[in-house]
Structure formats: C-alpha cells, structure tokens
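This part of the workshop introduces the protein records we will be handling. As an example, a complete record with its sequence and its structure tokens follows.
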Amino acid sequence: MSTAVLRVKRALTLAGIDAPAGLDRITGAANEVWYAGEYVVRISSHPGTRRLEHEACVAKLLPVGARYPGIVSYGRAEFGEWLVMRRVRGTVLARAWATMREGERRDAVYQLAGAMREVHQIKVGADNERLDRPPFLEPDSLECPHQLPLARLLRVLDRARTLPNVDKSVLDQAERLARINAASLDGPPPENLVHGDLHFENVLWDKGEITALLDFEFARAGPPDLDLEIILRFCADPQLHVSADYAPTVNRDDYRSVLRWIHEAYPELFEHPALESRLNFYSLSYDVRDLVVDPPRKPFDQLPPFHAYRRLRRLLDGRGMLQLIEW
C-alpha cells in the first residue's frame, strides 16, 4: 500500500469515517485530493501551513448561496493538514468549458457572479475579526498570491532586487507603477470577504448548474474587485491555471465574453472610477510575488513565455492582461 493511500486512510480514520474499498486520486489539484465514496479528502501539499484550518474557519461564515460543500472534519496529523468534505456532483468548469454552448457559458458566469456576490456580502472586519488571523498574512509570508497593500508589495520588491537575472531598473519601474496605482486603493481598509483564488479550476459545473465554489484557503478581508482580477487573469492566460493534461487544448478566445457577462450580472464590481489602476496594482503584486517564489534561472530571452519576469515586463510595457482580453 502506497504512502499516499496510507495518508488518506489515516485522515478518514481521524474523521471517524471508514475508508471505502475504492480511493481515487484527483489529478491536477494543487493539494493532494481524493474521492472516498461520498466524501472528498484533501491533504495539504504544504505541511507547515494552516491553510486548510483557515478554510474550515471561513466555511462557517459562508451562506448557502456561496455554494460551498459542507466540511465534515479537519485536523492535523504527522503528515500535515487534512480536511474531509462532502462530495458534490460536477466537473471543473474550466474542463467543461470547451464543450459548453454560448448560452451555457453565459448562464455559468451569471451563476458564478451571484455566488461571488454572496461571498462579498459577508463582513469579516478590516482585521479579519471574525476569522483567526490568516497565517499567510504574516509580514514575511509569500504564501498569498497577491501581496497587498503597498507596504507589503514594496518589501517583496526589495527581495526581488537581490535576485540574479533580474534588471534592477525593471524593478524600479515596477515600484513607480505600484506607488502610482496604489492611490486608487485609498480609503478605509476593506471589510468584505473575498475568495482570493477564484478561477474556473475552483468551480464545479453539472447539468446547467454551478454546484460548488472550492478552495477558500486564501479567503480574507479584501476589496471585492480583487476576485475580478483573478478571473481576468485566468481568462487572459487560461493555460497557466488548468491541469497539464488538457492545458494544450485551452483557448483564450473561448473566454472573450466572460468579463462582459460578469459586468451584466454583477455591475457593482466594476463601479470604481479607477478600476483599471486597481486591477493593474493587483496584477503587479501577483507577478512580483511569483518572481520571488520562482526566480529566473536563465537570462530573460531564454525564459518560458509565461514566466513571472516576462509577465511583469509585459505589464510594465502596457501589454498586461488588461490588454489581452475583451472589455
């Protein structure tokens, strides 16, 4: 019996559940994920973190309209964190998208927008008072995909300046852009809950219905249009966010109407007069963080096309994701 199977059986035992005869591992998931009969078992790929514990805390706040599957149990074992959820029907929306008709796609986006609104209406307080402080918000953590606010992003930029194969003048330009765009985020700290990683690989679809929003590991107080940036990022470069087994078949053109449909279904998400500056700031914070997590090990002209350093330079040249998709 493999070590992985022993882990999932141990998690089920700790949850008080008898392991079924068949255990099926889901390919492509960020964490280790298994189907176990009527349950789904998630085992963290980052044993030292508390992401699943945090998600279990967030789940207690989510209304039915957020379409989150119920959590049966969670905990920590010698191999790290585990979480057991109820299994719901459905296929990952990104995987189903290619065979969906235009009307089905629009309906899916409308439903997704409605679920987003349900999440965003939850008030957790500017300091996440209704949640234990998320561990990924600790000052030196790079876990969170978006490094906000400006002071945090500037610290990450300082770390990036120590990297090999990175032009320091590019980072100076990034800092100037960050400072300019940060003005669009002025105002009181946001109190609304945001998902934090809401792309189409974290949505389930079945027979004309969104059946689940998944993976609230990075949910916290934040500006609701942050979730818009994540969807926009997915639509601009979907192959970066989907499982490797079908990434070559993904086409950006198939997502050209998504932002328009979200605007129709959730117009208040687009109301800020400086929305483009805000989205550029979020995008910058994402790419700089990715640059530090996965630094370039070769000169720029030898990097793969979607490396964070290439994305950052495209953004600074005015060719970022906002220019890649239809508004």
